[in-house]
Design goal:
single chain; alpha/beta; Rossmann fold; 5-stranded parallel β-sheet; 16 strands; extended
C-alpha cells in the first residue's frame, strides 16, 4: 500500500518512513503542501499522512485542493498537542482520521491498519454494487470469453463520459445491446435512447428521419415533423450500420456533430440539440475511408472510443450460457417448459460455425423449442443446416456422399442471402433486389434457413 508523508520536519519524515518500510508499506515523502499536492496527484497513494501546520500551503488547504482535484486517497492529518480543533475541522472537510503529535510507532501502524481495512471494505462494496447493477440491468449480455469481458469493461468505463463510441462486429454479435449498456450506465439514462438503422431506410427518407422536415418541404409533407436528433435531445442516438450511410448525409451528420444543431428539411433556421452519438457497423470503416465511401473526418468524430465485438465462433464457451438464457426467455414468453439440451444437440451447437452469430443462435433455440416433442431439445429438433453442416466447396477432399447438388445448392443459397443481408444492413427489400428475388420469396427462404 502506498503512503505519502507530507511534513516540513525532516526528522519526522525519516522516522515515519522507517516505520512504514518495516511494516511493509511503500512510503513517499514531501516537504510541504504544494509538493505534497503534486506528488499525491501523480502517485495516487492509498493513504496520505499530512501535517496540519506547514508553511506555504497548510494541511487544510492541501486537503481541500486535493479533493477538488479528484484525489481519492484516505487523508490522515497529523496535529501538534492542543490542535485538536484543527483536526476536527479537517475531518469535517473529508479527512479520515488524525494522529496527535508526538505519536508512537504503534499508533501510526494501528491508524494505518484501520484505514487499510476501511479502504478494502469500501472497494469490495463498490465491486459488489457494480456486479449487482450490471447483473440487474444487462442480464441479456453473456460475457464469459475474455474478449467480451474486455468489451463490456470498456463500455462501462466510457459510459460515464460523453465521448462518441463506435461498436464494430459482424451482424448479430450484440452491438445494440452494448450501446444500450452505455446509455443505461451514463448520466443520460433517464433520457431517450433512440436507435435507427442507417442501412434499412432509403436514402431519400433517411435525411428527413434524422433531421425532420417542415410542412410543404416536399410532396406529402403535410405537417411539420420532428427528426430523431430532436427526439433524442438530452439522450442518446444510436446510429446502427453507419457504414451504409450515404456520403451526402455524412456531410450533414458531421455538421451536426461539430455545431450541435440541426436544420429540418425545408427550414431556414437551426435548432440546438444535445445528443450523445453511439454508432455501430459490420464494415471495416478504415477500408471504407480508403475506398472513398466514408468520410475520414466523420470517422474520427464517431470512433473516439472503438469497441469490437468478436463473432460467436471465436467465443464458443458462451454458447451453452446463451442457449440457456434464450431457453429461459422462450419458456417464459411462449408458455413452454423445455428443461434442457441433450448432449448430442449441444455438441452440434458447439461445432456449428454461426455465421449469423448470437441472433442466429437465438433463432435456432426458439425454433427447436417450438418443435420439440419432449422436455429436452434433441438433435432432431435442430434445423438441417445445423445438424449437417457442409464443408466449403473448395475442399479438395470431397467424398462421394458430399457431391449432392441439392445439398450444396442450399448452402450456397443461404450464404448468398446472408451476404446480401449483411451488405444492406438487414434491409430485406434491398437484399431481395440484390438476390433478384421477390420480397415474399426472400422471407420464406430466410425462415427456412433460420435467418429471420
Amino acid at each position: 500500500m502506498r503512503v505519502l508523508v507530507i511534513d516540513d520536519e525532516q526528522g519526522l519524515r525519516q522516522s515515519v518512513s522507517m516505520i512504514l518500510k518495516e511494516e511493509g508499506y511503500e512510503p513517499f515523502v514531501a516537504t510541504d503542501g504544494k509538493e505534497g499536492l503534486d506528488k499525491a496527484l501523480e502517485l495516487e497513494p492509498d493513504v496520505i499522512l499530512c501535517d496540519v501546520r506547514m508553511p506555504g500551503m497548510p494541511g487544510l488547504e492541501f486537503l481541500e485542493r486535493y479533493r477538488e482535484a479528484g484525489g481519492e486517497g484516505l487523508v490522515i492529518v497529523m496535529t501538534a498537542y492542543g490542535s485538536t480543533e484543527l483536526a476536527i475541522d479537517a475531518m469535517k472537510k473529508g479527512a479520515y482520521d488524525y494522529l496527535p503529535k508526538p505519536f508512537s510507532a504503534d499508533q501510526v501502524v494501528l491508524t494505518l491498519r484501520k484505514a487499510e481495512e476501511r479502504e478494502s471494505l469500501r472497494r469490495e462494496v463498490t465491486r459488489l454494487r457494480d456486479e449487482v447493477q450490471v447483473e440487474r440491468r444487462f442480464s441479456d449480455i453473456i460475457a464469459k470469453a475474455p474478449s467480451m469481458k474486455k468489451a463490456i469493461e470498456i463500455a462501462t468505463k466510457v459510459a460515464r463520459h460523453p465521448s462518441p463510441v463506435l461498436v464494430t462486429g459482424e451482424s448479430g454479435t450484440g452491438k445494440e445491446l452494448i450501446a444500450r449498456l452505455i446509455h443505461e450506465q451514463s448520466e443520460r439514462a433517464d433520457r431517450p435512447f433512440i436507435a435507427v438503422n442507417c442501412g434499412a431506410i432509403p436514402e431519400t427518407l433517411l435525411e428527413s428521419e434524422l433531421f425532420g422536415y417542415v410542412k410543404g418541404a416536399f410532396t406529402g409533407a403535410e405537417k411539420d415533423k420532428m427528426g430523431l436528433f430532436q427526439a433524442a435531445d438530452g439522450g442518446t442516438l444510436f446510429l446502427d450500420e453507419i457504414g451504409d450511410m450515404p456520403t451526402s448525409l455524412q456531410v450533414k451528420l458531421l455538421r451536426v456533430l461539430q455545431e450541435g444543431e440541426v436544420r429540418r428539411v425545408g427550414d431556414n433556421k437551426s435548432y440546438d440539440v444535445d445528443v450523445r452519438i453511439l454508432a455501430a457497423t459490420n464494415k471495416d470503416l478504415n477500408e471504407e475511408v480508403k475506398k472513398g465511401d466514408f468520410r475520414q473526418d466523420l470517422y474520427y468524430r464517431i470512433a473516439v472510443v472503438p469497441i469490437h465485438l468478436p463473432p460467436l465462433r471465436q467465443r464458443r464457451e458462451e454458447i451453452p450460457l446463451l442457449a440457456k438464457h434464450f431457453m429461459d426467455v422462450c419458456n417464459k414468453n411462449l408458455g413452454l417448459s423445455i428443461e434442457g439440451i441433450d448432449q448430442g444437440a449441444m455438441r452440434l451447437l458447439l461445432d456449428y460455425a454461426w455465421s449469423g452469430n448470437v441472433r442466429e443462435l437465438e433463432n435456432v433455440i426458439e425454433r427447436a423449442m417450438v418443435l420439440a416433442d419432449g422436455l429436452r431439445i434433441t438433435e432432431e429438433d435442430l434445423p438441417h443446416h445445423v445438424r449437417s453442416p457442409v464443408r466449403p466447396l473448395d475442399d479438395a477432399e470431397l467424398g462421394e456422399d458430399e457431391l449432392s447438388v441439392k445439398k450444396h445448392g442450399a448452402v450456397l443459397e443461404r450464404r448468398l442471402i446472408q451476404r446480401a443481408l449483411e451488405r444492406t444492413g438487414g434491409n430485406k427489400t434491398r437484399a431481395a433486389e440484390l438476390l433478384e428475388l421477390s420480397s415474399r420469396a426472400l422471407l420464406y427462404k430466410m425462415r427456412d434457413y433460420g435467418l429471420d
